[in-house]
Amino acid sequence: MTPITHGLASWVVADTGRTGDRDRAIVTWSGLLPDADGLGVVLDAMNRLLGRPETWYYGLYHHSLLHGLFGSLLIPAGLCVFAANRLRAFLLGCLAIHLHLVCDLVGSRGPALEDVWPIAYLAPFSSRSTISWAGQWPLNGWPNIAFTIALMGYVFARAVRSGYSFVGVFSARADRAFVETVRHRWQVIRHGLSTRAT
């Protein structure tokens, strides 16, 4: 799935785990960072642009360095040192990464039917325990879009009810502006609906 979907899903894990602002951000970043092993795509593109020999770092390392047990322990362990509740942040971070893996397993196929992305759970140390699913739907398939929309609905609902949102992972100031806007729009919608009902 896309990093946006992974970020939203990880934020929902953190939010339902009843974490504070900082720990919510840590758990969210834990669920996003497995995709750091896909940054080889930048090197591949730069080599092509600069006329250097063709490389395939993205294909070689994406879904093999941090998309497994190693990443699911390393990333939360590294980030939880900054958490207010380290144990909870670590456990929720592990959960967020495993949700990331499940999402990739079910919804990260390329455009062709054979473009299935497997999860090598014990990589980079072993290729044993590699998991794939022949029914994997395309990255741009409707189930991914529907899942992302549902996650966004949760974020908007939490902004109205709790006064914070996914935006707070990146900026507290932007989060306040976002929440204020969402709450204002919600009041306008509610007022419009109540006016029509009378």
| Low-confidence residue ranges | none
Number of domains: 1
> In angstroms, what is the radius of gyration?
19 Å
Tell me about the largest β-sheet: 2 strands, antiparallel
Spatial ordering of strands, largest sheet: 1-2
How far apart the termini lie comes to 44 Å
| SS elements, strand count | 2
Order of helices and strands: HHHHHHEEHH
**Mean model confidence by pLDDT:** 92
What is the overall shape? globular
Beta-strand fraction estimate: under 5%
Query: Helical proportion?
Result: 55-70%
**What is the number of helical segments per DSSP (H or I, 4+ residues)?**
8
Gist of the model:
The chain contains eight helices and two strands, in the order ααααααββαα. It is an all-alpha fold and 198 residues long. Helix 1 runs antiparallel to helix 2 and helix 5 runs antiparallel to helix 6.
Give a description of the structure.
The protein has 198 residues and is mainly α. The protein has one domain. Helices cover 61% and strands 2% of the residues. The chain contains eight helices and two strands; from the N terminus they run H-H-H-H-H-H-E-E-H-H. The chain has a two-stranded antiparallel sheet. Helix 1 packs antiparallel against helix 6 and helix 2 runs antiparallel to helix 5. The longest helix has 26 residues. It is globular, with a radius of gyration of 19 Å. The N and C termini lie far apart (44 Å). The mean pLDDT is 92.
